[in-house]
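Schema walk-through. Below, the input block comes first and the output block second. Nothing else is stored per chain. Lengths vary across the set, and this one has 110 residues.
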Amino acid sequence: MVILFLILIIIISFVLGFIVLVQNPKGGGLAGNIAGFSNQFMGVKQTTDILEKGTWLFAGALGVVCLISSFFITGSSAVEDKTRNIGNPTQQTAPAPTQNTTPVQPQPQK
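--- output ---
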């Protein structure tokens, strides 16, 4: 599931980057040079309105996909560490037994 969201984020980012690079707030740039249609893009006038709406749409979609993907990305946690130790029987999950730390008294010699 994480890979799906990663692919969606990359695709949306590239489309958003392309839309931002195509538009120019001063009316020049690449928006006027696409296939020689000066102010007409795919038969629709007001190219800047379409590009601006596309920018907001893809920026919103990128934000939503990033927020949703954060629910599916798991980080390292104590529960995850315990489940990893189940498959490895050589690791000890119980605490080590405590040792007696009182010093031993020497016995008097006879």
